[in-house]
Queue: 2 jobs
Job 1
Amino acid sequence: MEILLRLLIAHLIGDFLLQPNKWVKNKEKKKLRSGKLYIHVLIHFMLSFIMLWDAKLWYIPVTIGISHLIIDSAKVVFQKKKNKRFLFFIDQILHIIVIAAICFSINSLELNFKLNTGLLLILAAVIFLTKPSAVLIKILISVYTPKTEMKKDGSLQNAGTYIGMLERLLVFVFIATNHWEGVGFLIAAKSIFRFNDLTQSKDRKLTEYILIGTLLSFGIAILTGIIYQYFN
């Protein structure tokens, strides 16, 4: 469990926190000629090595790096506009399968230094609820993106993204501390603040788009909190 969490944390950091959007676009444009692809793979290798911090386990970061190169290379080669969403999920599933297979094959292995599993679980959940969840929600609802957009006059840049991260983290904290009433309060507060945006919008699809995104955000946070409680 500890090794699994360490490698998952390394994956979340490498694939989301340390991979800017411009790198993703560069890989999509240049494909195998993109230098960002190989830097990205090197980052995953280094993160896996740092998270394990055991020279005797050098083969694990190497396996992670090679598998990441193969999977990501196949993704950029075969990716088209129509299958972009599908390949995103296949890509993530394959990376997780590789990590799970590694952990299964070394189930009885002892690390040089131990970390608190509960702390690793919290760290994994917190990281997942930030940019990884934001990207996941964006991919999920991209097919429903309305043609018209809400006016952004006076709105802070990326404010919606950061608000979503904060609300998911708050929901997780409420559930982790067994304060479910806080989740209800947060949903009610978000509904009130969003009401003005929804009433100003004359586009029904835009209204539905906002509601789907909000419900997905809360749903992911609640599910993450429940999973944390189960394993903690």
Note: Residues 147 and 206 are 8 Å apart (CA to CA).
Job 2
Amino acid sequence: MLVLNETQTRNALPWLPLIDAVGAMFKAPCVTPVRHHHEVEVPGEAAATMLLMPAWVPGEYMGVKILNLFPDNHLRVLPTIIGTYLLSSARTGEMLAMVEGGELTARRTAATSALAARYLAREDAATMLMVGAGRLALNLMQAHAAVRPLKRFTVWARSPDKAEACAAEARALGLDATAGADLAAAAGDADIISCATLSRDPLIRGEWLRPGTHLDLVGAFKPDMRESDDDCIARALVFVDTRAGAMKEGGDIVQPLKSGLLIADAIRAELAELVSGSRPGRQSAQEITLFKSVGAALEDLAGAILAFRQAGGEAEV
């Protein structure tokens, strides 16, 4: 069985092939049962989350991700997301690979947002605001830069020091990035805004969004979390990775649905419909688009298969 550590997983998941692989999996006959989502009490700290996410393509590959999210791990200088992906043959059941789950999650999440941006962000998008300076931030900036001609990046975080450190890391990767102190000003200047936080309260206000903005919401993965306010929902065309997930789990969708501000039929499309062409994405340069991602097991399966093959696994099961 092939075993890939964090570095090997990163090297086996280059951006454009990964974005294409995720897109292809949204078209594939992939079976994705409802994931197990369990809250785990951590005495004296924020509650943790354990996710179990299975998926398979009949006769080809199957896998499951076991992911632990511990919000207070920064107090221990440990990553917030720790996990493992087990990839198997869906023809024989043979274990094929064990892929480091944190890196797989970070990269497939960013790749999914970039895939959505292919359909929802303006083709001439040049500026990006990254809200949040955690593990996903660099991945999201790099992934979006792979699909749009981004020239400038601003990083905002509640901690100015973390924002500056993230911007410095981005510069080391060749991105023109700076830390921003004024969130409203940075949002008003951005063609793409990507949020990856654990915020309980809205960070981005709809009044800040200029025509043509694309808002990518990746964090706030529980119903009581939120990164955008009601005005964002009211002004934007709303898209999701999957209706089943976003309408149940993501507070940016769940809360407006509950209040009646948003109705289910007003969600323009889920990602599978954009990829297949059955529903349109952006149709004019003036539209404000909003994409809410809560993650889907098929994204992990796509990444694990790509990593397996890129690292020298058999091309076919």
Note: Residues 155 and 179 are 5 Å apart (CA to CA).
